[in-house]
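Reading a protein record of the kind used here takes only a little practice. An example makes this concrete, so a full record is given next.
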Amino acid sequence: MARLLPLVLALVTMAASEARADGVYFSESFGGTSIKDELGARMSGAFHLRIAGGVRRGSWALEAWMGGDIATTERPTDFLVPSALLAYGLDAKYLQPVTDHVEIYLRGGLSHGEMSGQLDGYGGRGIGVGAGVQLKGKVPAIGFLFWPLFFTGWGPKVTASVFADDGFDFYRLHKGGDLRATPAIDAQLSHLTVGFAIGSDF
């Protein structure tokens, strides 16, 4: 959170031109996950990390992502490392401006997850939805080298945003990733994350 504070301040205090809402971007987010169903009996809480790259045209964006949920609360086992659900997927996102610098969005998509740790070898398909709000504007690119430079007008500018996201994913995991293998392990994951994005106009 500390590394996001300078960017938040820059976005709030700088006068920025209206974005064209077209372009490419990169984002990173992190937060907590609550896990239910059979997987929740083994690991009920996790640290969530996600990185993504996307393309936006108008009110729509297409976003490829990868991430993981690393167990923070886990039933005792002989494993020396915590269990984790690693996943990748593709989301479609619909964004709606509220003001020149604030947008809300809905997203949904398909994914594939693989377990490590005590359920190593289990994998399967997933589906996810989410909603969020983002604060965005133009900031000097040089500010990413030294944050006080966000408050100058020096050099070329990039579009940057900070956002909060509330998401839900459902996975059905099978031994060896074989959809015919039984029994399957179901997992409901609820995420609450914060993050940042940078790129061209988006």
About this structure: The longest strand covers residues 122-140. The chain has one domain: 5-199. The beta strands are 22-36, 43-57, 60-74, 84-97, 102-116, 122-140, 157-175, 185-199. The chain has two helices and eight strands.
